[in-house]
Each structure stands twice: as C-alpha cells, then as structure tokens.
Design goal:
By secondary structure, the chain is mostly beta strands. The chain has 3 domains: about 1-65, SH3 type barrels (Roll), CATH 2.30.30; about 70-125, OB fold (Dihydrolipoamide Acetyltransferase, E2P) (Beta Barrel); about 130-185, Nucleic acid-binding proteins (OB fold (Dihydrolipoamide Acetyltransferase, E2P)). The protein has 1 helix and 16 strands. It has one helix spanning about 95-100, and strands at about 1-5, 15, 20-30, 40-45, 50-55, 60-65, 70-80, 80-85, 90-95, 110-120, 120-125, 130-140, 150-155, 160-165, 175, 180-185. The strands form 3 sheets. Strands 1-6-2-3-4-5 form a 6-stranded antiparallel sheet, with no helix packed on it. Strands 9-8-7-10-11 form a 5-stranded antiparallel sheet. Strand 10 and strand 11 form a beta hairpin. The model has no long low-confidence stretch (mean pLDDT about 85).
Length: about 190
C-alpha cells in the first residue's frame, strides 16, 4: 500500500478506504473563503457499487491500493462482459460492463490497454488517453458563428455524441480524450 496526500487524488484511482476498494469517479478542488482548501471526492465501491462522497484536506492521507498492471488487448464484448487477452501468455480475462464504467464506449477491437489486478482479480482498465473515431454525423456550420469559439454536436462511429469545432465535417477522423470525452484534434 502507498499513502498519498488528499490533494493528489485523481479520477480513476483505486483507493483502499475503510477496508474496501473504491474507484474515484469525480474530484473537485474547493478553496472556501474561510478555512483551508480541500478535495471533494466522489468514489464508487468496486465490490458492492455503493457511492461515497468524502472531503480530504491536504494534511489527510489515504491508502492508494497497490495494483499490478498488465498489458492486454481488447478482444470482444459478449452481453455485459468485455473480454481481454494478456499479450504475454495469451490468457483471457472477462470484465463486467459495471466495472468498466463509462469508458466502455471507447473500446475498439484489438485496442491495447492496461488492466490492473488486485490479488489476481481484474478490477480496473486503463484506456489510452486519446482514441481516434470517424465522425458520421455533424451539424452544418452556421455563418458568423466562427468568430467566437463555438462548438457543434457530432456523432461518432461508436454512437457517442461529442462537441467538435465548426470546421469538422462528417467523414473526418478525430481524436477524443477518453477521460472526459472531449475533442482533442484531427487524427
């Protein structure tokens, strides 16, 4: 186990808190007018799915779970399970959609990912920071809107809608940040 400061907590981290493993879903750094700054952390329990909101000050420490990360390749989805293959020994591991969370929409066949194990059980999947997808639908540009930084909705080949700059048209391939589902650039 490794102790980290409360302000070093990031989304996606796995924490050992009150004897359970928690995945950090959201964080918000708050600096009130009176008193010290703190990190508002929303966590979800890996085993039973309960949610917990907790405040951590910079002086507070929390245990970061020690996980073993293994490089794996995404193979396919079957029902609510996603199957990954270990690139070293070709063993296959199945991970539920609940465990994957919102990141499951960014999975593509043969994608290289890092799967984190805790006591030889898979508990987390780390996708690449950016993935490329084709834009299948994009609204037309409205004249005069390009003067200010405006965005328009676009539908990607995986069915996800993201906000893109006005110069992106249907048929183009773009890169998207997997962490916050935002436009990152042209591919």
């Amino acid at each position: 186990m490794m102790k980290i400061s409360g302000v070093d907590i990031r989304p996606g981290m796995i924490l050992d808190y009150h004897g359970k493993l928690w995945r950090v879903a959201k964080i918000q750094h708050t600096q009130p007018g009176k008193g010290g700054a703190y990190m508002q952390v929303e966590m979800k329990c890996i085993t039973d799915g309960t949610k917990l909101n907790e405040r951590f000050r910079s002086a507070d420490t929390v245990e970061k779970a020690s996980l073993e990360a293994r490089p794996m390749q995404y193979l396919f989805a079957e029902g609510s399970n996603h199957t990954f293959m270990d690139t070293a020994n070709y063993e296959q591991v199945s991970i539920t959609a609940d465990m994957m969370g919102e990141q499951a929409v960014w999975l593509t066949e043969n994608m290289a990912v890092m799967v984190e194990f805790y006591n030889d059980a898979p508990i987390a999947v780390n996708l690449p920071d950016k993935v490329a997808f084709e834009v299948v639908e994009a609204d037309a540009v409205v004249k005069g809107q390009t003067a200010s930084s405006s965005y328009k909705p676009a539908k990607l080949s995986n069915g996800v809608r993201v906000q893109v700059p006005p110069y992106i048209a249907a048929g183009e391939t773009i890169t998207v940040n997997t962490i916050d589902s935002t436009f990152a650039g042209r591919a």
